[in-house]
Amino acid sequence: xxxxxxxxxxxxxxxxxxxxxxxxxxxxxxxxxxxxxxxxxxxxxxxxxxxxxxxxxxxxxxxxxxxxxxxxxxxxxxxxxxxxxxxxxxxxxxxxxxxxxxxxxxxxxxxxxxxxxxxxxxxxxxxxxxxxxxxxxxxxxxxxxxxxxxxxxxxxxxxxxxxxxxxxxxxxxxxxxxxxxxxxxxxxxxxxxxxxxxxxxxxxxxxxxxxxxxxxxxxxxxxxxxxxxxxxxxxxxxxxxxxxxxxxxxxxxxxxxxxxxxxxxxxxxxxxxxxxxxxxxxxxxxxxxxxxxxxxxxxxxxxxxxxxxxxxxxxxxxxxxxxxxxxxxxxxxxxxxxxxxxxxxxxxxxxxxxxxxxxxxxxxxxxxxxxxxxxxxxxxxxxxxxxxxxxxxxxxxxxxxxxxxxxxxxxxxxxxxxxxxxxxxxxxxxxxxxxxxxxxxxxxxxxxxxxxxxxxxxxxxxxxxxxxxxxxxxxxxxxxxxxxxxxxxxxxxxxxxxxxxxxxxxxxxxxxxxxxxxxxxxxxxxxxx
Length: 529
What we know:
single chain; mainly alpha; Serine Threonine Protein Phosphatase 5, Tetratricopeptide repeat; two-stranded antiparallel sheet; 20 helices; 43% helix; disordered N terminus
């Protein structure tokens, strides 16, 4: 009996010790623990504004540029002065990239994208179960989470083609290795997520700038219009032009956006420093122009983009310890602008080529981006909190113009949208004359006029290579006739450095490291052969 009693006592002690040792970890939370109050759900969604797709734009370094610049390098239209030490830049410019020589760079990108997707999946699964959230709050947060999941997958499918489609958070080691989904499957998820967000009335149609810098229905609608435009081109070639036009017009008709206009003096002379482009540049965020942007804040999360406004030769004249022509347009890019009629190419509009030194002298340098110029950061603080646009209202107008032309013909509405963008740039021309020059064009000719304006207007939204991928056309400028742009078949064409664009270059290679980690993945065709 004494032995039995001792066994029972020991069992009780072990049980009590076991219960005592079962404490909740204090340095991390499981999903079940985390989504226990409304603040947790808001925190989960807030993290998506900095993770996943946004890291394509906001992961900028002084030397290597931001990831959104990669397509510009592929075209050869943009250079980086530090390409000698940045293999991803050099291999992109020379079209020699593959899964091995860009593995480190692309593995980092791939990992960031899927971590963002994992966070979005976690939020989407557990927000509906979070105690204390009203139905409207839950649906609004779900809409934001789905927007960012779609935004991230949109980058992935454009860059790599079909990728693993993962919609549940990883909570076990089961199904750890996921094969690539088809391009169609990826786009189906993107559309489903964005339609949910664009139809979520609780988000409202206000611009992000007037919505406490949060995603709204109009933000989702704008991205959905771009997705449908892209799906209408290669590689899917599904006719979604009508859908693209519908969602672009939802944004236009919302009344939340308007193109910034130029300021003129009493004699109707343009005030160059108060042109629309400089008004946008000088403001932290242009509520009427910025449809979606990456938010920065001094001392919290600062922008590296001002360092790209000057070549390395001018570093000593600014507050930053380094400047770098990290997205330095080649001469061939500048030839896309009419040097006399197009305001965007004039000094200190989109670009600049002079700075006043400390001694008052004028220092000239090769023309460089001025759009990201932060006067205070570059002259004093070396700390920029200026927001960076990812999608502007100009983009929406141009999407609408192209999509309407392709689905309805070259209507007055399509002409008006293109003319609004072009008319602001050709500030000395009567907009009615611009409309007249577009009237009577065939669908193909009008569409090419839209492509030309996308090339010129959206240079700082990094759409160039996206447009090459979806249209399979490569833009060619002319030294003898600046302002003219023609289009040739992309496959077989030379980029600006004379390197032949092959079919494989219209997608990026999957990183070799990721192929080794996941045996279910296969490399894109013709890479690493």
